[in-house]
Write a structure and sequence with these properties.
This protein has helices spanning about 5-15, 20-35, 50-60, 85-90, 105-115, 130-135, 155-160, 180-190, 235, and strands at about 75-80, 95-100, 125, 145-150, 165-175, 195-205, 210-220. The protein has a single domain (about 5-235), classed as Rossmann fold (3-Layer(aba) Sandwich). The model has no long low-confidence stretch (mean pLDDT about 95). Strand 1, helix 4 (about 85-90) and strand 2 (about 95-100) form a beta-alpha-beta unit. The protein has 9 helices and 7 strands, in the order H-H-H-E-H-E-H-E-H-E-H-E-H-E-E-H. Keywords: Cytoplasm, Methyltransferase, rRNA processing, S-adenosyl-L-methionine, Transferase. Specifically methylates the N7 position of a guanine in 16S rRNA.
Length: about 240
């Protein structure tokens, strides 16, 4: 099937991102795998090619507006779902080591298929809960960047994500719209977890009215051993 890829290229160009032909082919294959698998399991409600390009691929790569990705060596994507933003980041920045984490084994199976089909190297999809994996020495404070497009409250997300980040690394939370009040309410929990808010970047996605806010939290010290708490606790009793 033929796709109009020029709009994709143009949108990325506005973020100073360019793709080789092989990278563009990887995105097309990723889209086709996503749509095919979506017929038998719920991966995304967005299936139109142009919408997937904008709302999943371009959005995933919008992290370049807040972080110099050329300085990043390792990324963990917490609650990755269908692979966003982790797989687009891996395609565009193949030198980065990527871990995709999700609590649903079927999604992890799909992600493994995508990794193999796109011939991606130094990337893995792992099944687990953030509360448990954040206590595992194999993953705890092993990454210089954690990303998440999950929609949880920022205090909850920070408890899920900051334990994975090494000192001087960053957690980038993809949020929608204005988040000033949410950030204010999460400042103390973030500090408890060894972090501080470094920047808030709000913008419209290229050629759209879709609002995106990227919150960058710097890891300034080690996360106390008691965090993250047992599975279910961060969401049930968010830190205050």
């Amino acid at each position: 099937m033929k796709y109009n890829l020029q709009d994709f290229a143009n949108r990325l160009e506005k973020m100073n991102v360019s793709l080789s032909d092989s990278q563009m082919e990887q995105f097309v294959k990723y889209y086709e795998l996503l749509i095919e698998k979506n017929k038998v399991m719920n991966l995304t409600s967005i299936t139109d090619f142009d919408e997937v390009i904008l709302k999943h691929f371009v959005d995933s790569l919008s992290c370049v507006k807040a972080v110099n990705m050329n300085g990043v060596k390792s990324v963990i994507d917490v609650g990755t779902g269908a692979g966003f933003p982790g797989i687009p980041i891996k395609i565009v920045f193949p030198q980065i080591s990527v871990t995709l984490m999700d609590s649903l084994s079927k999604r992890v199976g799909f992600l493994t298929e995508v990794i193999e089909a796109l011939d991606l190297r130094d990337i893995s999809a792992v099944h687990g809960r953030a509360e448990e994996m954040g206590q595992d020495p194999q993953y705890r404070e092993r990454y210089d960047m954690c990303v998440s497009r999950a929609v949880s409250n920022l205090a909850v997300l920070s408890e899920y994500c900051l334990p994975f980040v090494e000192e001087n690394g960053v957690f980038v939370s993809y949020k929608a719209g204005e988040i000033q009040d949410e950030v204010k309410g999460a400042e103390h929990p973030i500090a408890l977890l060894g972090g501080r808010v470094e920047s808030i970047t709000s913008f419209d996605l290229p050629d759209s009215e879709i609002k995106r806010t990227l919150l960058v939290i710097k890891k300034t010290g080690k996360t106390p051993e008691k965090y993250p708490r047992k599975p279910g606790m961060p969401a049930k009793k968010p830190l205050t």
